[in-house]
Amino acid sequence: MTTFWIVIAIIEFLLIAAGVLVFILNAKKQEKIAESARQMAKGKINLDDIPVSGTSSKNDVIAGGLNLIKSNLLTFVESTKQNTVVLADAIEKLTGNMEANKAGTEHIAENTIEVEERTGQQLEMVQDNISVTESNSVQLEAIASSMDEITDMLKETAKISDEGIESLEGYNREMDVVSADLNAINDTLTKFNEQLQKVYEVGDFIIDISTQLKLLSFNASIEAARAGDSGRGFAVVAGEMTDMSEQTKEGMDRISAILSEIMESSTGVVDSIAKCTETYNESKTAFEVVNSSFRTINTNSTNIQTKITDINDKFSVMEDNFNHSKDIANDLFETARDINDKTTEIAGVSQEVTAQAIQIGENTNALNGMLSGIQKLLRRFDTGVIPVRNKSGRQIKIAMLSMYDNDFWYGVKRGAGYAATELAGYNAKVKFIPIIPAEGDDDEKNRQTIKGLVEDKYDAIIYPGFLGGVADALEQARQKGVKLMTFNCDCANPKLRLACLKSDGVAQGEQAARAAAELIGKAGNVGILMGSKTVIGNVERRKGFVDAMAAYKSIKIAGEVSVEDMGDDVYKKTKALLQKDSSIQALFLTNGFPEDAAKAVVDAGRSGKTKVVGFDLNPALFPYIRNGVIGTIISQDSFGQGHDPIVLMYNHIVEGTPFAAETIGCRSSVADKSNIDELLEG
After folding, report:
1. Reported confidence tier of residue 1, pLDDT bands at 50, 70, 90
2. Could you give the CA distance from residue 481 to residue 655 in angstroms, rounded to a whole number?
């Protein structure tokens, strides 16, 4: 019996202890809820979610409601901030455009009268042009007629030239025959002269013989005289020989005289024939020149005829063009007259437009005032760091290098854009430099970018801590007085930065492990999709996830694959892992591509069987969360990670005081099926 009461006492004690513990826990949660409510009432909404156990207790309901209100208010405020930037730019452009439009409208109104006057002058000019065109048309017809006559004359000339060429060619052939005959006669006479010369030479020979005979006869007479009577016969013979010699000489002299006359006449004939041949050859050359001239005339006549025909064709085209121009001129005349009629209407409309422009300008001023009111209202909500007044008077230049390849980094750019607009009124220049992974030496590009910022005298450079291959360039920048800060995750060498703004990667991994365990009922198999190990955030998240999972004895890490920080690679390897091991019920993705992992789950036929736990909420993930493909998404304030480091660095430069801490945390929140329908898709 005593044992029974002891057991009862122990049970009562445990119940009392449990009640006290529940009271204490509820009191802590109530205090957390109250503190969050007080902060939100002051406009401070840059808060972490209040932990919710998933029960239906009043505290969890209130905490969940406050989380939703805070998340939606943050989304609304940050979206409104972005919209005010866009709206301010639009108002500025609209104001500029309206001023230009107003000036342009007034200018139009002033010039309308001048246009009207010039239009009247144009009408007169068009009318004159029509008259000139008609006159040109008549002249063209006359020219065309003359060209036809010239063409006919050229055809006749070409015909006569052809006939002359044929006659010259016939005469040339006959002259060739005469030339041949003259050359033959000349050759014959030349031979005849040569034969006469030979006869003349024979005559000389006979004369020489006659002389010898005469001398012989004289000697014979002398010898006969010496002989006396016995030599009388020789004397008679000598006398006869002398007579014969005298007669022979006389005959040969007459023959020589005749031959001389014949040779003289033959030489004259030869000279005449030679002169005739020479004259003929000269005539032949002249006829060849004439023949060539006739051919040239014939060719030129043909070419001229061709050119005239071509010109005639062009005149026909010109005539058609003049007719077309005349039609256009008539149309232009009618159009000019219509313009003249419409110009008066334009003047009236321009005056109305000017009045409307003035009204739009007034509305723009009112809109600008409303925008100022919205911006003033937004400043009541503390969603991030507030800039301090720049009293130095000098311009402060801050650059942010950031990845730009998924929705998280798009949010970072929006935050940096708002910081740039916010600080513009504080004489600060903010430059956002996107890093888009591509083939090639990205590290070298980043090094050159950093060197360029140093050369441009930037005061500070903010960069993601995982940025590799740039340590030397950053060290050189630091040595030259450039202030450095990291965000999203810390760098391997802390001396390269004054501070780091980032979420707690280990805590995020632990949070993801708890969410995955709840999704599979704290029993089953999970898989890990591990992003680049050079990114410290991926390493920290994995460590927190694995360490936290060790507490769940019924959960096994069935597989782990490395994925590149690229959507396509995440999709491909997620699908391959699920096809290899269908027992995996939850997938933990360390990097920022949950949409690609969700698509792989669907395409692998694992919808409703495998749930994704990942990071960085964006509107594209809402359908996957609603249908259960994505179980939990942990957000890490992408807008704030773009905005806060810039303003923190600006404040540090302006105030000259150290950062409050080397590691500065950023808020996180959770989206799952329990709250997704109430969250704004900002």
Report:
1. very low
2. 17
Q: What is the pLDDT of residues 535-552, one digit of tens each?
A: 888 999 999 999 999 999
User: How many CA atoms are closer than 13 Å to the CA of 402, on its beta-carbon side?
Assistant: 29
Give the tens place of pLDDT for each residue, 637-677.
889 999 999 999 999 999 988 998 999 988 888 899 888 88
Please give the structure tokens belonging to residue 379: 């400043």
Where do the domains of the chain lie? 1-42, 51-383, 504-635
Which class does domain 504-635 fall in? Answer: alpha beta
- Decide: 416 and 401 in contact? Cβ < 8 Å: no
Instruction: Kindly state the tokens that stand for 363.
Output: 């509305």
Q: Are 432 and 646 in contact (CB under 8 A)?
A: no
32-to-59, 73, 123, 361 alpha-carbon distances in Å: 10, 19, 86, 50
The amino acid present at 514, given as its one-letter code, is: R
Going by their DSSP bridges, the two strands 663-665 and 500-502 should be labelled as parallel
* Helix, strand or coil, per DSSP, at residue 611: strand
Query: CB of 650 within 8 A of CB of 47?
Result: no
The model's confidence at residue 33, banded by pLDDT at 50, 70 and 90, is: low
Domains 51-383 and 504-635 share a fold: no
Q: Distances in Å between the alpha carbon of 115 and those of 110, 328, 329, 492?
A: 9, 21, 19, 72
Confidence label for 385 from pLDDT (cuts 50, 70 and 90): confident
> pTM for this one?
0.54
**681/617 Cα distance (integer angstroms):** 9
Give the long-range contacts of residues 603-612, CB within 8 A, separation 24 or more.
603/575, 604/574, 604/575, 604/578, 604/579, 606/578, 606/582, 609/582, 609/585, 610/578, 610/584, 610/585, 610/586, 611/516, 611/519, 611/520, 611/585, 611/586, 611/587, 612/586, 612/587
Give CA–CA dist 417/432, Å, rounded.
8
Q: Which two tokens stand for residue 83?
A: 């919209």
Q: What pLDDT, in 10s, does the model give residues 189-214? A: 677 666 666 666 666 666 677 677 66
Distance CA 151, CA 157 (A): 10
Asked whether 40 and 19 are in contact (CB, 8 A), the reply is no
Confidence of residue 306 (pLDDT cuts 50, 70, 90): confident
Q: Copy the structure tokens of residue 214.
A: 């005469």
What pLDDT does 240 receive?
Answer: 67
**What mean pLDDT, rounded, does the chain reach?**
76
At 47, is the pLDDT very low, low, confident or very high (cuts 50, 70, 90)?
A: low
Q: Name the CATH architecture for the domain at 51-383.
A: Orthogonal Bundle (1.10)
Pairwise CA distance, residues 563 & 132, whole Å: 81
Give rounded-to-5 percent helix, strand, coil for the chain: 70, 10, 20
